[in-house]
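Exercise 7b. Backbone tokens:
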């Protein structure tokens, strides 16, 4: 593999500019994703955190102490009043808690909302209606779009470096410790709305809307209380693109033969990503992104960051810059996210209906 980076590849976007005047962030929810993703990102990128609220006060106090956040709000009402319209709300909440919370956000405020945007598409539409009724500028935390590797791939496609995209494949055979999230056993569906939703959203940003979706989500005996833990998904883009996702989160015979790859193939080149943070969820390894373009050889593109924490900071930066008029597009606008939620609903419906029975 050549060590020389083609100038077109070296110039691919991998980061997001920060707001010129960062607004203070009030975080609603103090779970593991905030500890592992949100707060490390905001600390790294000098995005100020004004306060934290959680229904479990002790969890909020410990998290605040660990990250030097000076204010822990005693009630949701107190947090809402303190942030108002001058700051940014970061709703790191379970799906079922989002609607009732956004219905209380101050008019003309700004909010980043944890994915999924509610438990289903119908609720997502209610959430967006509630936000619109209160004139809230809101984005969904679909941070996979903002991972340095994904920014680079999307930029390469937009610049035509790969030609016409003809094949997109996501392949996982990894171990996901689903037991880390206590709310998961209570859900009617797990893998597609909580994990594959990221890929579905990212693929939409890359290829546009699919014509239809075929999917099947299945259980695993190791997780008898979970609705499902593995999925196979095909997105139908007619006869121009093959798009397939094979997602096994219960492979437990590693490290041998663990797989976590994303491949985008075009008529003039291809990108291949090894998704390091999924190879070992507890002890992630760096991602590895390689490109090949017409007439060249496979070349590794040095990455300027990782999904955690960088992408969590970039999605917040886009929201803050959009609210300030510095970005013209809100990449994960909730109005766009509704289409991702509709795709998730369609995949779950396909999984329930089953395939065509041979005669």
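Sequence design result:
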């Amino acid at each position: 593999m050549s060590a020389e980076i083609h100038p077109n590849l070296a110039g691919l976007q991998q980061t997001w500019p920060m707001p010129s005047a960062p607004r203070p962030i009030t975080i609603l929810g103090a779970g593991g994703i905030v500890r592992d993703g949100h707060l490390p990102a905001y600390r790294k990128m000098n995005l100020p955190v004004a306060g934290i609220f959680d229904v479990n006060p002790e969890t909020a106090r410990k998290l605040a102490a660990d990250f030097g956040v000076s204010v822990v709000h005693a009630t949701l009402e107190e947090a809402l009043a303190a942030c108002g319209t001058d700051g940014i709300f970061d709703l790191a909440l379970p799906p079922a808690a989002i609607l009732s919370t956004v219905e209380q956000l101050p008019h003309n405020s700004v909010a980043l909302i944890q994915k999924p945007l509610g438990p289903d598409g119908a609720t997502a539409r209610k959430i967006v209606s509630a936000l619109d009724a209160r004139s809230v500028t809101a984005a969904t935390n679909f941070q996979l779009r903002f991972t340095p590797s994904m920014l680079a791939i999307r930029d390469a496609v937009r610049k035509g470096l790969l030609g016409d995209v003809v094949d997109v494949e996501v392949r996982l055979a990894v171990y996901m410790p689903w037991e880390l999230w206590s709310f998961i056993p209570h859900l009617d569906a797990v893998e597609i709305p909580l994990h594959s939703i990221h890929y579905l959203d990212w693929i939409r940003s890359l290829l546009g809307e699919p014509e239809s979706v075929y999917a099947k989500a299945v259980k695993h005996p190791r997780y008898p209380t979970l609705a499902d833990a593995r999925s196979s998904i095909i997105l139908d883009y007619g006869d121009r693109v093959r798009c397939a996702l094979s997602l096994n989160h219960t492979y437990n015979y590693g490290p041998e033969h663990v797989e976590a790859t994303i491949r985008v193939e075009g008529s003039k080149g291809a990108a291949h990503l090894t998704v390091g943070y999924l190879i070992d969820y507890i002890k992630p390894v760096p991602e590895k992104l390689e490109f090949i373009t017409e007439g060249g050889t496979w070349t590794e593109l040095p990455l300027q960051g990782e999904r955690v924490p960088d992408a969590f900071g970039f999605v917040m930066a886009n929201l803050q810059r959009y609210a300030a008029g510095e970005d013209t597009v809100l990449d994960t606008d909730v109005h766009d996210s509704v289409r991702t939620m509709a795709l998730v609903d369609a995949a779950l419906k396909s999984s329930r209906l089953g395939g065509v029975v041979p005669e």
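Instructor comment: The mean pLDDT is 95. The first strand starts at residue 25 and ends at 28.
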